């Protein structure tokens, strides 16, 4: 399969690197990372060790079988615009937040899949990405239900030894992922702590309450996500990724804009006071850094 990864940051580079073991991969990202990959290949270190030689560039190619979109949620519109001239069979969003698939589907003439990914990734240096934990990719039709495209993409991922499964309930899973990200990302970013520190009593209360508020919002939209399921999911991710720094903490440490609008901001309002507080604090930090109006 011919795969273009749009957003060769940490997760995009890791997935692209692993897929390059079995497929033709093009990484689209920023210099100097893509230059280094073009010159010397991509080193994957950590839990999985390999060096692969994908194509790497700053602009999308003219065609591909699959576009894997791993850009930050606030860049989805730009990724969709960049892909508008690319001939594609399928697009798969592996991003944080809700609504990315809709943005892609509105702009592109290709089957759009939704996915979640629990592989841990960290960009160590230009040309090198660390796999900080083997997880799982789950993908499926963005509206839910069976999808031949999802089956085909799932098989292609499995051919590259990525732990992958195909699911028919992606909309509910995206809400569950949102509940997990809402509980972990903003609290770790604001307190500058590893994910595992949220398992302590005080911080754990913030994590669990933010997660419960998202579960309630999911139920109000008709999705079957109980408080217990959401809290068990967030506790299990915080514990499995205890030594990791969340993507939002990494953004804050690099003084980059965060995805708070697409995570906690999605449910912020009178019924979600903890998510509203987390959103307000991160937006205030972004403003002070000159990252937003
Ligand atoms: O997806 C993540 C992120 O950091 O964005 C979690 C699951 C919270 C792992 O750190």
Automatic annotation (TrEMBL):
One of its GO terms (biological process) is coenzyme A biosynthetic process. One of its GO terms (molecular function) is 2-dehydropantoate 2-reductase activity. One of its GO terms (cellular component) is cytoplasm. It catalyses: (R)-pantoate + NADP(+) = 2-dehydropantoate + NADPH + H(+); (R)-pantoate + NAD(+) = 2-dehydropantoate + NADH + H(+). Pathway: Cofactor biosynthesis; coenzyme A biosynthesis. Residues 172-284 form the Ketopantoate reductase C-terminal domain. Residues 3-143 form the Ketopantoate reductase N-terminal domain. It is an enzyme of class 1 (oxidoreductase). Pfam families: ApbA, ApbA_C. Its EC number is 1.1.1.169. Keywords: Coenzyme A biosynthesis, NADP, Oxidoreductase. InterPro entries: 6-PGluconate_DH-like_C_sf, 6PGD_dom2, ApbA, Ketopantoate_reductase, KPA_reductase, KPR_N, NAD(P)-bd_dom_sf. Catalyzes the NADPH-dependent reduction of ketopantoate into pantoic acid. Belongs to the ketopantoate reductase family. This is 2-dehydropantoate 2-reductase. It comes from Halomarina oriensis.
